[in-house]
Write a structure and sequence with these properties.
With about 290 residues, this protein is mainly alpha-helical. It contains eight helices and no strands. The longest helix has about 50 residues, at about 195-245.
Length: about 290
C-alpha cells in the first residue's frame, strides 16, 4: 500500500463508489415500496426475469446494453448510470478530500488517519444520495444509512488518529438522544409530529462519525440551510395556494406540509466534517469577537 500512488487509489475509490451507488439505486427503488433489498435478486421490473451479473456492472452494464434491458428490450432509465457515476465521483472525492485536496497524485497515502477520514467521508458523501432521494419523495430515511452510520462510526473510531471509540459512542447517544428530546418537546408544543425518528437515527450516525461537537454543528448548519431553502419555498407555496383558492376548479392540495429534514442533515454533515473547526473559528472571531 505504501508504494501505490494516490491516483491509483482514486480510481479504486471511484469504482467502489460506483458499486455502492448501484446498491443505493436498489435502496431508492425498493425500500419505499416495502421490497426486500436481498430477495428477490436483481431482476427486470417489467418481465421479472433475473438479470445476469455481467449486466449489473455499474455504468458499464448500461452502456453495454445501450440503455435497454437484455430480456425484453425496454428502455432502462438513464438515472441508474447517472447515480452510479455520481457516487463514483463522490467516492474519489472522499479520498481526495481526506488527503488534503492539493496533494500530489503521484504520492502514496501513508497516514492511517487519512484512510480513516477517507472512510468517514466516503460514508457521508455517498449516504447523502439515498437520504435525499428517498426522504424528499417518501419522507423516509433508509436504516441502512442511518443505523449503518452508527456502526461505521464506531468501527472507524478504532483507527488511531481520529475520535476515540468512547467519543464515537457518546456522540451517537448524545446526538440521537438530544434530537429525539428536541423533537418530543416540539411535538408537544406544536401538537403534531415535529421530527421523524429517521432524522434522530441519522444524526446519531453522524455523532458516531464526528463526535458530539460535530453532530451539534451539523444540526445547526442543517437548520440554517433549512431556513434558507424553506422560507422562500413557503412563500412561493402560499402564493400558489392563494391562486388555487381563487380558482374553484383547481384541485385541492393534499400535502400534509411535512418538510423532510434528512437532506439538510446529509448535506451539512460532510461540510462540517471537512471544515467544521474552520467555520467555528470564523464564527467565534467575526460574530462573537473572540
Amino acid at each position: 500500500m505504501q508504494e501505490i500512488p494516490l491516483w491509483y487509489w482514486l480510481i479504486v475509490f471511484f469504482g467502489f463508489g460506483a458499486c455502492v451507488g448501484s446498491f443505493y439505486n436498489v435502496i431508492v427503488y425498493r425500500m419505499p415500496r416495502g421490497i426486500s433489498l436481498i430477495n428477490p435478486p436483481s431482476h427486470c421490473p417489467l418481465c421479472k426475469k433475473r438479470i445476469p451479473i455481467r449486466y449489473n456492472l455499474p455504468i458499464v452494464g448500461w452502456l453495454w446494453l445501450r440503455g435497454k434491458s437484455a430480456c425484453c428490450k425496454q428502455p432502462i432509465s438513464v438515472i441508474y448510470p447517472i447515480g452510479e457515476g455520481l457516487c463514483g465521483l463522490l467516492g474519489a472525492l472522499a479520498l481526495y478530500s481526506a488527503a488534503g485536496f492539493g496533494t500530489d497524485l503521484t504520492q502514496p497515502v501513508l497516514s492511517a488517519e487519512t484512510w480513516a477520514n477517507a472512510a468517514a467521508m466516503f460514508w457521508l458523501l455517498l449516504g447523502a444520495y439515498p437520504v435525499c432521494a428517498v426522504d424528499c419523495k417518501y419522507k423516509l430515511i433508509p436504516d441502512s444509512i442511518s443505523v449503518g452510520g452508527i456502526v461505521a462510526g464506531l468501527l472507524i473510531s478504532l483507527v488511531p488518529g481520529g475520535i476515540t471509540p468512547l467519543q464515537s459512542l457518546l456522540g451517537a447517544v448524545v446526538a440521537g438522544g438530544g434530537l429525539y428530546l428536541l423533537g418530543w418537546i416540539a411535538t408537544k408544543v406544536l401538537k403534531k409530529d415535529a421530527m421523524g425518528f429517521g432524522d434522530v437515527k441519522l444524526l446519531a450516525g453522524y455523532g458516531a462519525l464526528m463526535g458530539i461537537t460535530g453532530a451539534v454543528e451539523t444540526l445547526l448548519v442543517a437548520a440554517l440551510l433549512g431556513i434558507l431553502v424553506m422560507v422562500p419555498y413557503g412563500m412561493i407555496k402560499n402564493k400558489a395556494a392563494e391562486r388555487a383558492a381563487k380558482n374553484k376548479n383547481a384541485p385541492e392540495n393534499e400535502e400534509n406540509g411535512q418538510i423532510p429534514f434528512g437532506p439538510f442533515l446529509a448535506i451539512a454533515a460532510p461540510i462540517i466534517y471537512l471544515w467544521g473547526s474552520t467555520l467555528l473559528d470564523v464564527y467565534l472571531k467575526y460574530v462573537l469577537g473572540e
